[in-house]
Amino acid sequence: QVQLVESGGGLVQAGGSLRLSCAASGRTFSSRAMGWFRQAPGKERESVAAISRSGATTYYTDSVKSRFTISRDNAKNAVYLQMNTLKPEDTAVYYCAVFITDQAVRAAAYVQYWGQGTQVTVSS
Questions:
Q1: Taking the CB of residue 52, how many other CB atoms lie within 10 A of it?
Q2: In the 8-state DSSP scheme, what is residue 74?
Q3: What percentage of the chain exceeds 90 in pLDDT?
Q4: Could you write out the DSSP letters of every residue in 52-72?
Q5: Pick from 8, 12, 5, 30: which is nearest to 91 by CA?
């Protein structure tokens, strides 16, 4: 059974940093792109960042570029999201995702597996 378990969320002041981790189990995802989505209250789930299977290609939504960094460790079957200079508008539940493709994509339609989510709250 495939499981994606996120960790690292929490409450932080604006300008602070958090590092999200996602550990996958049940199968190896070194051949798949992985990514992070988020969903704020009353809003649709949106793509935040994605990384190709090798890590050579990444995608970021415009609002997080230069502040967030996605990385992966295929030996550990894990993906990470380093979030710096956090803003109150970054407050959301963050979800780890495994795509059906090996390329860094943004569409939720390409997600095969989802994590359960971790809450990130940024206070002003």
A1: 20
A2: T
A3: 99
A4: -TTSS-EEE-GGGTTTEEEEE
A5: 12
